[in-house]
Specification:
The structure is a single chain. This protein is α/β, with parallel strands linked by helices and 334 residues long. The chain folds into two domains: 2-183 and 222-246, Rossmann fold (3-Layer(aba) Sandwich); 192-219 and 251-284 and 306-333, Alpha-Beta Complex (UDP-galactose 4-epimerase, domain 1). The protein is built from eleven helices and 13 strands. The chain has helices spanning 11-22, 43-46, 65-75, 89-94, 96-115, 151-170, 192-204, 225-236, 254-264, 293-299, 307-333, and strands at residues 2-6, 26-31, 55-59, 79-82, 122-128, 174-179, 182-183, 211-213, 219-220, 223-224, 243-246, 252-253, 273-275. Helix 1 links the parallel strand 1 (2-6) and strand 2 (26-31). Helix 7 packs parallel to helix 9 (254-264). The longest helix has 27 residues, at 307-333. The model has no long low-confidence stretch (mean pLDDT 97). The structure holds NADP nicotinamide-adenine-dinucleotide phosphate and ligand G4F. Ligand G4F binds at residues 87, 89-90, 128-130, 180-181, 190-192, 195, 213-215, 218, 220, 254, 279, 281, 284-285, 288.
Length: 334
């Protein structure tokens, strides 16, 4: 089996690559040209002599339709996982048009490329709980109406419906995974959980004094990224394509995440955290809580890592990084 992943250099792309290689897939990943290295999350796979023949990286971009068209027709993958996106909600308010170009139209460009294939590949779209925005009901299911609250959320709603439209209009196997927030030690450092675990570890070792955050009352249904990529693959193995909510069924505030991490590292977060209005959003999503009953029933999927374990595994990983940083700082001071 041959899979193509957009967004392979991101958090989910790296876990999904490991997962698919483990299943014997040949994996093609689209990477963007960058002036500095951007393959840190997959370097360990690429450099592994057992895996590097089965992982191939090709340059492309979701804004480049003709390139996507020739790549897909040249590679002829069986499955396409569209994980590439400008994925930061706060940034989408600063760059709404770019975000729509990549997240909304980028999805359409991939779908058009798939439609042009002799044997159209199966398609997975990385849809998001951010589409529920100002939630119409709690918990949120596949039937809950969307009310996006950001340019990112609006772009993902567009991509969600285009995915369904290509399924219905052209009979393409196209599914939406509506994933609630999922985190890991590979999470980007500007998302709130990782920002907290990075800072807490550095504060613990005296490398940093303060942590500046925005809205601490927001609540999210946080799961572990490693668990969630399995659900993506399971959706692609069904007889019929469909849409699934993937979530833990528990919601916690940013404050609770702070409590969990700082108390694990034996510190009181209130001594270090300060509020900076720059991190507030023009419109906020106050609370998300997913109901993954359909995925449990149809896919047989279950989350394995809970909130406490997630906070601790991220804190442990960031303590390791901070210890190395401390050695360098101490060495420079000698
Ligand atoms: P991430 O770490 O931010 O990774 C995003 C990936 O998209 C990176 O590989 C990035 O490449 C790539 N990308 C950005 N702009 C691109 C463009 N113009 N063309 C091609 N690739 C581009 O995101 P993630 O957390 O892994 O999330 C994966 C997907 O799931 C995203 O679509 C996200 O919106 C969605 N999602 C995430 C969550 C979550 O909680 N993590 C929940 C629901 C949905 P560079 O490395 O070069 O920047
Ligand atoms: O970690 P966040 O930036 O994640 P957010 O906005 O929920 O988006 C993530 O999850 C979505 C799924 O629902 C994905 F689709 C999306 O791609 C992304 O992965 O913020 C979480 C909450 C927000 O309410 C935010 O206002 O934390 C609050 N927050 C408070 N202080 C902060 C901060 N968020 C960030 N990034 N930085 C802060 O300093």
């Amino acid at each position: 089996m041959k899979a193509l992943i957009t967004g392979i250099t991101g958090q989910d792309g790296s876990y999904l690559t490991e997962f698919l290689l483990g299943k014997g897939y040949e994996v093609y990943g689209l990477i963007r040209r960058s002036s500095s290295f951007n393959t840190e999350r997959i370097d360990h796979i690429y450099k592994d002599p057992h895996e590097n023949t089965k992982l191939k990286l090709v340059y492309s971009d979701l804004t480049d339709g003709s390139n996507l068209h020739s790549l897909l027709n040249g590679i002829n993958p069986d499955e396409v996982y569209n994980l590439g996106a400008q994925s930061h909600v706060r940034v989408s308010f600063d760059q709404p048009i770019y975000t729509a170009n990549v997240d909304a139209l980028g999805t359409l460009r991939i779908l058009e490329a798939i439609r042009s294939m002799k044997k159209p590949a199966k398609f997975y779209q990385a849809s998001s709980s951010e589409m529920y925005g100002q939630v119409a009901e709690t918990p949120q299911t596949e039937k809950t109406p969307f009310y996006p609250r950001s340019p990112y959320g609006c772009s993902k709603v567009y991509a969600f419906w285009q995915t369904i439209n290509y399924r219905e209009a052209y009979n393409i196997f196209a599914c939406n995974g509506i994933l609630f927030n999922h985190e890991s030690p590979r999470r980007g450092e500007t998302f709130v959980t990782r920002k907290i675990t990075r800072a807490a570890a550095r504060i613990k070792l005296g490398l940093q004094d303060k942590l500046y955050l925005g809205n601490l009352e927001a609540k999210r249904d946080w799961g572990f990224a490693g668990d969630y990529v399995e659900a993506m693959w399971l959706m692609m193995q069904q007889k019929k394509s469909d849409d699934f909510v993937i979530a833990t069924g528990q919601t916690h505030s940013v404050k609770e995440f702070l409590d969990e991490v700082f108390s694990y590292l034996e510190m009181d977060w209130e001594k270090y955290v300060e509020i900076d209005s720059r991190y507030y959003r023009p419109a906020e999503v106050d609370m998300l809580l997913g109901d993954a009953s359909k995925a449990k029933k149809v896919l047989g999927w279950e989350p394995k890592v809970d909130f406490r374990e997630l906070a601790r595994l991220m804190a442990d990983a960031d303590m390791k990084i901070a210890k190395n940083e401390k050695i360098i700082v101490d060495h420079q001071g000698e």
